C-alpha cells in the first residue's frame, strides 16, 4: 500500500532510514546526475525527509548539494556517537555528516546535516561504503577495484589500509557483523572474496570466481546466523551462502529475481526476510529459509532502474508489516510504502 511519494532534483540511487532511537522517522535519499558537456559534471544531493506513515506524510526538511553520490549509510546502532551519515561520491571523497537540530519523533520538524569531516581518499570514484559494527571504521569500494579501510578519529578521516582487491569496479564491501576483522568484497570481475584485516595488507581468506555469471553488486551478512551470507548479482540471482562451504551457494542458483540484484537489506526484526532492489524488475521481498528462497511480495510502482531500498527500523505496524522506502534512477522517484503481506505469519 502506497503511503507517499515525491520526485527528487536528480537521479535517485540510494535511500536510508536512520536506525537510531528517536530518529527512525528520518529518511535520507541521495542522487547522482551526470551533466554532459566538454567538462562533464557529476552532481548530487542528500535530501532528508520526515516520514509519518500513519498520516501519509513525506516532508522534506533539509537538502545538501554535493558531488554525485553512489552510496550513503547511517552509522550503526550501538556506537557511542549520535546519528552520523557517510557519503561515498564520484569525486573520490568520503564525507561524514552529523544530524543536528533534529527533534525526536513527537516533534520531528527541522534539523540539518553538518559536515564533520571530508577526505579525498582516492583519485578513483568511491562506489560503496559500509560501517563496521561499532561505527569506528568504514570500508569503501573504489572504481579501480581497490578497497579502502578508514577510521574516524577526532573529526578526522584516516586511512588504515588500502589494497587492490579486484580487477574491475568494486561495487560492494561488507564487514562481517560477527567477526568484524573480516571484510567481504564483490566486483564487476564476477568474484566474491573475503579478507582478513588483521594482516597488513589484508590477507585473502577465500574467493569464489566460478558461480556469479556477471558482476557482484551487493553482499549482506545475516544479522542472526553467523554462517549465512547473501550475494546479489547483475545475473539476476540472489544467492544464499554457507560460509562453512564457500565453493557453491546453498541452492545452486538460489532465486532469480528477474533483474540485476543491486541492493539487499535484511529486515530489522523478522529473521530471514530480505528486501531487494532488482534494477530492471522493481523491488522484491524475499523469504530466506531452510528451503529454496522464494519471493514473498513484489513491488512494481517504479518506472525506472530500481536502485535504493530500505526498511524503517520503527516497531512493526498493526498487521505485522514494516514501512519501506524505495527509489528509482531516471524518473527520480522516491516512494514510501507498506507491504501487503502480514509478516506475523512468516
Describe the protein's architecture and organization:
The protein is an all-beta fold and 346 residues long. The chain has one domain: Methylamine Dehydrogenase, Chain H. 0% of the residues lie in helices and 53% in strands. A four-stranded antiparallel beta sheet has the order 1-28-27-26, with no helix packed on it. A four-stranded antiparallel beta sheet has the order 2-3-4-5, with no helix packed on it. The chain is globular, with a radius of gyration of 19 Å. The model has no long low-confidence stretch (mean pLDDT 93). InterPro entries: Diphthine_MTase, WD40/YVTN_repeat-like_dom_sf, WD40_repeat_CS, WD40_repeat_dom_sf, WD40_rpt. This is methylated diphthine methylhydrolase. It catalyses: diphthine methyl ester-[translation elongation factor 2] + H2O = diphthine-[translation elongation factor 2] + methanol + H(+).
Q: What is the chain-wise order of helices and strands?
A: EEEEEEEEEEEEEEEEEEEEEEEEEEEE
Q: Biggest β-sheet: count, sense, barrel?
A: 4 strands, antiparallel
Q: Roughly what percent helix?
A: under 10%
> How many strands appear in the DSSP assignment?
28
Based on the coordinates given, report the CATH architecture: 7 Propeller
Shape field: globular
- Supply the CATH class: Mainly Beta
CATH homolog superfamily: YVTN repeat-like/Quinoprotein amine dehydrogenase
For the termini, the CA-CA separation is 19 Å
Averaged pLDDT, please? 93
SS summary, helix count: 0
Specify Rg, calculated over alpha carbons.
19 Å
Give the CATH topology. Answer: Methylamine Dehydrogenase, Chain H
- What structural category arises from helix and sheet content? mainly beta
Question: What proportion of the residues form beta strands (DSSP E)?
Answer: over 45%
Please indicate the count of domains: 1
Query: What is the strand arrangement across the widest sheet?
Result: 1-28-27-26
The residue ranges in which pLDDT falls below 50 over 5 or more consecutive positions are none
Family: Belongs to the DPH7 family.
EC number: 3.1.1.97
Pathway: Protein modification; peptidyl-diphthamide biosynthesis
Keywords: Hydrolase, Repeat, WD repeat
